[in-house]
Amino acid sequence: MPRFLSAKPDARLIPLPWGTPLAEWPTEQLVALPRGISRHVVRFIRVDDQVYAAKEVIEHLAIHEYRMLHDLMRLNTPAVEPLGVVTGRIGPEGQPLDPVLITRHLQFSLPYRSLFSSGVRQDTVIRLIDALVVLLARLHLLGFLWGDVSLSNVLFRRDAGEFAAYLVDAETGELHDSLTRGQREHDLQIARTNLFGEFCDLEAGGQLDEALDPLSLVETIESRYRELWTELTGIEEFAGHELHRIESRVRRLNALGFDVAELDISTSRDGAMVRIQPKVVDAGHHSRRLMRLTGLDTEENQARRLLNDLDTYRARTNQGFVDEAQVAHQWLTQCFEPAVATIPPDLLGKRDAAQFFHEVLDYRWYASQRNGYEVSHVDAAHGYVNDILRNLPDEAISEGSMEQLAEGNRVLANPFDPSQGYLDQNDEKPYDPWEDEVDDDAGPLAPFGGFDINALRAKASGGSA
């Protein structure tokens, strides 16, 4: 009789065929969704309206990962949500079977191989790199030693014009009060090895832009991580008459999406020099503010964009003197909710609400420029739905759309296990919906994506970086 370890049990999972090896489960209980290659047997299972990821792994690792993911969720870290561990499994011939770790499928997300399947452009690669760097820095700030940094252990979601990265494998992770420099360097060395191998694999398969070199990409990840870590934790010294630089440092961190809970400030005996160092830095500055004002739970860059529209609404309605929470409620009920309500039921799988509104804001700006007057949020939403949204592939769970995302015109040897490859040798690559909107030619490697630290420094100081 199998045993279930779960803090939030789903009774609908109990009748499932746990006495059958996961690789042999009946297809009517599985969902063919795109995923990365794993050294374990992984399947997506559907239970009514819910989809879960199930991974067979030895017991002590399954329980360790389950508890580690719970700790990360408690710390508000971008990671998949653990549901439980099924132990005590016995096969049809009485043989013991490995336990199964169950996590909730992350809606509107894709693994990196689905993104690279049609040959990702340079600027998209850089945005994915930036998302991975931010995730690694956030984990290290929390004292989490990953131990297996790789693209295969990450899922990506749209986050306004950028991407957000989510941890999906905490099997080798360790949580400490804080990490030493040596521990962080250990993670970087693992990242260097794993990522170089993954980029070389993409290059060999013709899925990496010829202008991108695997070694240069790995070095870019390392340099961007070090730059971000220095900005988040580094010591800064300046003259006593430059106290404005304290606020500038805080503002730069806020612009990067981090809050400063504690700042260590010390001065020389004569007050001529000041030394500052952030001591406690928490990610999610904009998403926390938006949640507090509206109750909307979004990615960080989505929150930044929605807050900008909220601030614009407040200025346009001349309510600078009104309590911010009241204005936020007006914006929510008069702008955001009516726009989202324009999405027809059959198109709800195209975008999540925050990403839809972000894209509507872009459409609204162009429509206003074209028409010569300010187009309303609702009119822009109707136009966006009819002109653009209908033609986009689903990014939520839909068996038909997921097959399109994962396969295109090629047939997987096993639609429930992409790691087994294709049946044919057709050179035509799968369609990549996340590249559909990118029309501009990619330029050289840009500074830290949407987080250009040098530009932030220049802006704060009023001069050049």
- Low-pLDDT stretches: 397-409, 425-447
CA-based shape: globular
Termini separation comes to 65 Å
Computed CA radius of gyration, to the nearest angstrom: 24 Å
N to C succession of SSEs = EEEEHEEEHHEEEEHHEHEEHHHHHHH
Class based on secondary structure composition and strand pairing: alpha+beta
Give the strand content: 15-25%
Structure overview:
The chain is globular. The strands form 4 sheets. A 6-stranded antiparallel sheet has the order 1-5-6-4-3-2. It has a 3-stranded antiparallel sheet with strand order 7-9-10. Mean pLDDT is 82; it is low at 397-409 and 425-447. The chain contains 13 helices and 14 strands. It is of the alpha+beta class and 465 residues long. Helix 9 (324-340) runs parallel beside helix 11 (377-387) and helix 10 (353-371) packs across helix 11 (377-387). The protein has helices at residues 59-74, 112-116, 122-141, 181-204, 214-233, 244-255, 285-294, 300-316, 324-340, 353-371, 377-387, 399-407, 453-461; strands at 3-5, 30-31, 42-47, 50-56, 82-87, 100-104, 109-111, 144-145, 154-159, 162-167, 174-175, 236-239, 258-267, 273-283. The chain starts with a strand and ends with a helix.
Short structural description:
The chain is α+β, with helices and mostly antiparallel strands. It has helices at residues 59-74, 112-116, 122-141, 181-204, 214-233, 244-255, 285-294, 300-316, 324-340, 353-371, 377-387, 399-407, 453-461; strands spanning 3-5, 30-31, 42-47, 50-56, 82-87, 100-104, 109-111, 144-145, 154-159, 162-167, 174-175, 236-239, 258-267, 273-283.
